[in-house]
Amino acid sequence: MMTRLNRRSVILLALATMMALLPLVFPSSYYFRVASLVWVSALAAIGLNILMGKAGQVSLGHAGFFGIGAYAVAIGPAHLGVNALAAVGIGALLSGLLAFLVGRPILRLKGHYLAIATLGLGVLIAMVITTESRWTGGPDGMPVAKLVLFGWRVSGSDTWYWITAGLLLIGTWIALNLDDTPTGRAFRALHDSETAARVAGVAVNRFKLQAFVIAAVYASVAGSALAMMNGFVNPDQAGFLHSVELVTMVVLGGLGSIVGSIVGAAVLVVLPQVLTVFQEYEHFMLGLLIIVSMIFMRDGMVPMLARLITRGRR
Amino acid sequence: MSVLEVSDIGISFGGVKAIDGVGFAVEPGEIFSIIGPNGAGKTTLFNVISGMYTASHGRVLLAGEDVTGLPPDVLAARGLSRTFQNLQIFHRMTAAENVMVGRHLQENCSLLADLLRLPSVNRQNRATRAAALALLDQVGLRDCADIPAGALSYGASKRLEIARALAAEPRVLLLDEPAAGCNSVETEDIDRLIGRVADRGIAVVLVEHDMKLVMKISHRILVLEQGRMLVEGSPQQVRDNPLVLEAYLGHHGAREAARA
To answer: Domain ABC transporter, which positions (chain B) (predicted)?
Structure first.
């Protein structure tokens, strides 16, 4: 019990220290921006990991919720006169509500069938965003008003670095909290054997729905943060490719490993920037790296490294 | 009053009657065994009673209340636990965590409290873990508490399932072949364990192929053959019944056995 508690604090402390120290080595504001992108992506990935890695349910449409969060902070202030911060809350609420309503029927599906159903949901959200151009600006996207907090106009990539870092810390804290609780155990139990979980009295459908709603809210908040940081949204953020990217972050980092999701997000955000030196081979290299790491690190990078370290210690 | 009462259960799969007109009643603290040749419908009967299958007809009463057709998690809350013939453990969780999941219904489970890890959650966690460790101790797995359940031996996994089922504090415990694949020492452990469980007033319904075990610990035995009830009675009555021998060995085999 004590070791668990320590592990949680150690991870949070290490993450916070890294966040605090990184800016010391950043030569330009461009680095702040890339790091903020990592924090935002990691936040969405951690939420998805609670659904996929803990509760064992796949979602191939998760960018849809990301898009809802992003467009909430774009549409809310522009069309409805809603305060930006309130729009973040409204976006999260809408995402959670949609996940709740759609999740009830589709989470009864398993494996490939659930994958297709969630994919359909994501495509649907992206389609609505693209076609309702009067509200959303259509395929071209729309600008997002600057966030104003108590009269202070939030801008600059270093400011957003700290905001997104703070959000990720909170998201990580909540995800780590969940692990060793009745809810967290119910998630992991239904992942391993739905039958046995049911017989133990776990209301399987309720917990799947909870995981789905949690994941949707994480994605929505991440989407809102990115939209405000960029000052712009476009439908790609809700699109299928972005959903696949989120799933890749989770699987590459390690299903069920919260730290893994941060590492996975870092790899998928930073690598394309580094690989630009290969010019037109960039996407080829990225794809190849993912394939190779999946072959040699099937459990994901962080669980694999953790195993190597514990083995070395023995 | 019987804690479990099953009457006139029937279920068909694609026109084949897997179970037909089976009924029995079990008292608290009783060990009631169901035996029969392979394919007699023992596990199917368990699946109907525990809510995994829906019966085409018949009723299941738990402590006098009609629970026919209720889902497994609701039945668990009403006091019915079971284990599985093919292991159903949470193999990525530790042995202790497996049993802690078994305590799910005894725990307060609030999503918000869990997300924020309120002090009450930690307090409850400690209590749940203590209860789980005590149960692991009872089944002789205290030393394995913190290793992943997937790394346990077959016999140990079987006992882990029993500990998890007991964690729910059931009134009725269905055990589906708890001794299958166990060596004689492990079987003796399970034998003693079942005895202790029944002594606490829990009704144990047992499906088992190890006849030595069944004959030794059962108070009553029900013999199924091709989905129908063949004989019900004490171990002595069942052993002496020529119909039972015939069901297991066939007509010719029974004659041979009688001569031997």
So the answer is: 4-251
